Amino acid sequence: MNPNKALWEKGDFTRIAASMRDSGEGLVAKLGVTKGLKVLDLGCGDGTTAIPAARLGADVLGVDIASNLVAAGNNRARELGLTNVRFQEGDASNLGELADDSFDLVVSIFGAMFAPKPFDVAKEMVRVTKPGGRIVMGNWIPGDPTLIAQVLKTSAAYTPRHQRVSSVR
Fold first, then answer.
1. DSSP assignment of 136-164, as one string?
2. Which residues pair with 73 in a beta bridge?
3. Cβ contact 115:168 at 8 Å
């Protein structure tokens, strides 16, 4: 099994994601998302960014490596009655099932930054973005003094080496 996948499937990230819902909605409101816009949310979790984009009328695909988060995203969409968003399992470094130039907007907020092969992820993001489209990322900065950066640094020290997840630098 992919150690990155195993790590994200171990806990219940949806409990943490619930505390980030407002920031997801705030971000999407500033991105100019409109009806019919094709959006890919990469490392989507349970839809913190994808759900608000769908509420604004975008056609959204959320991709995450963790099957439990994909299931949680699909459950949230169903409970909210959203038919213009779906979640599927996938690896950000290999989006081979997605066609070139498919999305107007590719978003990864605190998602793709955890991929062990950041250059492969960047290539895939560019490949699936339409000419003139946009890529928006939110990433924690290595060495950042914020609380979450320090929590990640501390927890990495206790994670077995084969399960460590690197951030994009």
1. EEE-PPTT--SHHHHHHHHHHHTS-GGG-
2. none
3. yes
Model pLDDT, residue 149: 63
Question: 75-89: per-residue pLDDT in tens?
Answer: 999 999 999 999 999
All domains in the chain, ordered by first residue: 3-163 (3.40.50.150)
CA-to-CA distance for 100 and 103, rounded, in angstroms?
Answer: 9
Q: Give the alpha-carbon dihedral of 51, 54, 59, 60, to 10 degrees.
A: -10
Q: Per the confidence metrics, is the pTM higher than 0.85?
A: no
For residues 42 and 160, the model is more confident at: 42
Query: What separation in angstroms does the CA of 71 have from each of 76, 77, 93, 135, 141?
Result: 9, 10, 21, 25, 29
CA 23 – CA 118 distance, rounded (Å): 24
| Number of C-beta neighbours around residue 154 at 10 A | 9
